[in-house]
Amino acid sequence: MDNQFGLMNLWAQGDIVTRGVAVMLVGMSLASWIVILIKALDVIRYKRLARGSSDFWHSEDFATALNKLGRDDTNPFRALALEGREATAHHRNTKAHLHDTLDVSDWVTRCLRNGIDEFTARLQTGLAVLASVGSTAPFIGLFGTVWGIYHALMSISTAGQATIDKVAGPIGEALIMTALGLAVAIPAVLGYNALVRGNKFVLTKLNSFAHDLHAYFVTGARVQSSEPATVLPLKKG
Fold first, then answer.
1. Which own/partner contact pairs does 191-195 have at CB distance under 8 Å and 24+ positions apart?
2. How many CA atoms lie within 13 A of 204 on its CB side?
3. Which of 113, 128, 174 is nearest to 35 (CA)?
4. CA distance 53 to 68
5. Are 53 and 77 in contact (CB under 8 A)?
6. Which residues form the MotA/TolQ/ExbB proton channel domain (predicted)?
7. Residue bearing the bigger pLDDT, 184 or 59
8. Element housing 163 (H / E)
9. Which of 8, 12, 77, 181 places its Cα 20 to 30 Å from the Cα of 42?
10. Which residues contact 235 (CB under 8 A, 6 or more apart)?
């Protein structure tokens, strides 16, 4: 077949712009898939930690509860529990700082919120890559198509032949760039939406855990979110 239809023929016949667009789309696809796989594994791990965080409250004292969260420093629930404990101890033991004008509730709230904000920023790392790929890849592919059609038409015009068999092949190959742009963008968009939903689940669990920690460090008991409100005692360790 003289006119082999496909990406290889497009690459062979294309100029530096066409090849540059193709390389860019391939690079964007690789970047998005790497982000999707890495962040998906993180979300799965954090979901498992979130489901296991309920065991924290089924303990006799804080030290035992902390051990149930494991010793992984990247566990956001363990980090938040340590942050709350340190904030409470710091507020209790220091006397000559500006934060002494805050009561312990406000101080613990501020420290727990800072911990959640830091984890949120870490959790959302890489999502900007997926958002950028999903929004720009179709247009980059379309640009490659327009440039490819222009390049093909210029070649046909130079050759002086405009029959359908001479036009259909080069233009059809140029349209592959649009399909390639969509093939890059669609997984990025779907991956972004799935990761956002997973992150939302983890952050909801983390905020609920922080609310219980706040009640525990301020009042000495965990507030149970039910009607009427009850408290579950947990000795301070």
1. 191/32, 191/35, 191/36, 191/40, 191/130, 192/127, 192/130, 192/131, 192/134, 194/40, 195/36, 195/39, 195/40, 195/43, 195/127, 195/130
2. 8
3. 128
4. 8
5. yes
6. 100-201
7. 184
8. none
9. 181
10. 60, 61, 62
How confident is the model over 6-34, as pLDDT tens digits? 556 666 666 787 788 888 999 999 999 99
Put simply, whether the predicted model's pTM sits higher than 0.70 gets the answer: yes
Question: How far is residue 56 from each of residues 26, 71, 146, 231, measured CA to CA in Å?
Answer: 45, 13, 59, 15
User: Largest Cα–Cα distance of the chain, in whole Å?
Assistant: 90
Q: Are 65 and 59 in contact (CB under 8 A)?
A: yes
Q: What is the dihedral of CA 192, 194, 79, 229, to 10 degrees?
A: 130
Q: Which residues contact 48 (CB under 8 A, 6 or more apart)?
A: none
Inter-residue contact 115 to 144 (CB < 8 Å): no
Q: Phi then psi for 163, rounded to 5 degrees?
A: -75, 160
Give first-to-last CA distance, the chain, whole Å. Answer: 79
Name the CA radius of gyration of the chain, rounded.
28
Q: How does pLDDT run across 86-105, given as a tens digit for each residue?
A: 877 776 666 555 555 567 78
